[in-house]
Design a protein that fits this description.
This protein is 62% helix and 0% strand. The chain has 22 helices and no strands. Helix 6 crosses helix 7, helix 7 crosses helix 9 and helix 7 runs parallel beside helix 10. The protein is globular.
Length: 542
């Protein structure tokens, strides 16, 4: 462990990435694709040798660990590691170019799941590599949330942090000569130990999260295999569910083989993306002691149920208008079956897009045959903007921030009726209604400003405003499949090779637009407050 702490964090992650390239190499070799197996093998060895040489050169004079270095390393991982991951991808697809390969890996590592390529034209080892990149990106954000973002009080942890300038504890005894600091910071001398080293914190958090993360992935993989999914489809679907990347190796809904039972299994495994309490660490984010009182889970359940009921009512009214007056019992049974399928499609898609995964139910478009109406995809965009739980693999604004704003609004309406009332709820409720709501509103305005800025940059090219808006929301919320769920007007000014899929809204974009959207993916993954912290003078002060 001391030897690893002397190495740069980027070098350690690059070495792990090189080792992970050996798995697609083995899979390609077993699949009789020897050329692609050699590509992944040589790329992995090249990355390992390069990481080893850089590690040997930097181990003799390790820099002093500072809190800002961990945040800079996190940004470097999301911006630079896709270039390392793109080496075997660009070699396997010679007509795509290194930039498009970097863009594809950036989309996967940030768990966005957008793709420039048609799924039926990519080889199976590349599908496995994309799914692995998304899975590793989800694992990295779960470990980095508690190891890097929590000590800096960003990434959602600022909402539950103890407030500055206001005492939450009443002191009845005289002040001590050495008072207890209830709100310490990493710059205090008590934290200057090996336990506070950013690398050590990240390794410790990774060792706590990995057994749970890998165990859930393997469990879902085995369940989907038993329900009838092919091996590669089940594995990619399991990794895409736990990482909320939504990466699939097939066209259309990935649950065509496992059916309704497979979608129910995926539905259950999407729930951990709604709250940090399902993962190790992040105990300070718990706004309630009991699981049933968790505000994030209650809000998620309410929103998903509301969306499912609204869509069901819409299709139900459309089916009544299109039904004939002489319907018999067989037609009634048929309508009942289609109605239940439409309700399940709305329920599954609601949770899928709320967690920014982007899976589509096999019954989502089937509801059109029942009612004759199209499915309103803009509702899914609203759910993706709301996002999942804080410090999880989900993107968006996050449920805890929405809950803090809702509680603040409720309290303000109570004060209109009863100006002198005293609100209860305890210490956590007061913290959420006051400082938590204030910080949540700041983040919401920064998020809205980010959407406006990205839409303006994307619209520089000849792209319709509706398409630019949906692509910007999909990138900032890390919900790449959102672009395929809503009809868009694709641009054909550029391609990513013979396997490109410009009709899905991504491949036909110009290079400048792709670069802007890739930056939006990184910004959405790290969150705007974390990136803005890098520009703070206090952050760079020695």
């Amino acid at each position: 462990m001391p030897a690893l702490l002397r190495l740069p964090l980027f070098v350690l992650i690059a070495a792990l990435t090189g080792l992970s390239m050996l798995l697609p190499a083995v899979y390609a070799s077993v699949s009789d694709n020897d050329e692609m197996a050699r590509t992944f093998l040589y790329s992995g060895l090249l990355v390992l040798v390069g990481a080893g040489l850089i590690g040997l050169a930097t181990a003799a004079n390790p820099p002093q660990a500072r809190p800002r270095d961990a945040l800079l390393t996190m940004l470097t991982v999301y911006a630079g590691m896709p270039l390392v991951m793109a080496l075997p991808f660009a070699q396997s697809m010679p007509d795509t170019g290194l930039f498009n390969a970097w863009w594809e890996m950036t989309s996967a590592l940030t768990t966005t799941g957008a793709s420039l390529y048609s799924a039926d034209l990519l080889p199976a080892p590349l599908h496995l590599w994309r799914a692995m990149a998304g899975w590793m990106g989800g694992f990295f954000i779960l470990a980095a949330a508690t190891a890097i973002l929590a000590p800096l009080r960003i990434g959602g942890f600022e909402i539950m942090a103890q407030p500055y300038g206001r005492r939450e504890q009443y002191e009845r005894l005289p002040r001590s000569a050495d008072p207890l600091d209830r709100n310490p910071h990493l710059s205090t001398p008590g934290f200057q130990t090996v336990l506070a080293h950013p690398h050590y914190r990240l390794m410790r958090s990774a060792m706590e999260v990995f057994p749970v993360y890998a165990g859930l992935t393997v469990a879902l993989w085995l369940i989907l295999l038993m329900l009838g999914d092919p091996g590669l489809v089940a594995l990619c679907r399991a990794m895409g569910t736990l990482s909320t990347s939504g990466i699939s190796p097939v066209l259309g809904p990935p649950g065509a083989s496992s059916g309704l039972a497979g979608e129910m299994a995926v539905f259950l495994f999407l729930i951990p993306a709604l709250s940090r309490r399902f993962w190790p660490g992040g105990g300070e984010l718990r706004a309630s002691d009991r699981l049933v009182d968790d505000p994030e889970l209650k809000m998620a359940g309410g929103f998903v149920a509301l969306v499912a009921l609204s869509l069901f009512a819409r299709h139900f009214l459309g089916a009544i208008e299109s039904a004939s007056a002489a319907d018999g019992p067989p037609e009634m049974l048929y309508d009942l079956r289609n109605g239940l399928a439409a309700f399940w499609g709305g329920l599954f898609n609601g949770l899928s897009y709320l967690t920014t995964t982007g899976w589509n139910s096999i019954d989502w478009q089937g509801a059109r045959a029942w009612s004759g109406l199209t499915s309103p995809g803009l509702i899914l965009a609203g759910l993706a903007m709301m996002g999942g739980g804080v410090a999880t693999t989900a993107g968006g604004v996050k449920l805890l921030r929405v809950y803090a704003l809702a509680r603040h609004g409720q309290r303000e309406m109570e004060r209109i009726v009863h100006p002198n009332s005293v609100a209860g709820g305890g210490q956590i409720a007061r913290r959420l209604r006051r400082e938590g709501a204030y910080l949540a509103f700041i983040f919401f305005m920064l998020f809205a400003t980010s959407i406006a800025l990205v839409v303006a940059l994307v619209s520089i090219q000849r792209i319709e405003i509706e398409t630019a808006t949906i692509l910007s929301i999909a990138a900032l919320t890390n919900t790449g499949p959102l672009a395929a769920a809503i009809p868009l007007s694709p641009a054909f000014e550029g391609t990513a090779g013979i396997a490109s899929a410009p009709w899905e809204g991504w491949s036909g974009l110009p290079v400048f637009t792709k670069a802007v959207l890739a930056g939006a993916m990184i910004l959405g993954r790290m969150e705007t407050l974390a990136v803005l912290a890098l520009f703070s003078p206090q952050f760079w002060r020695r």
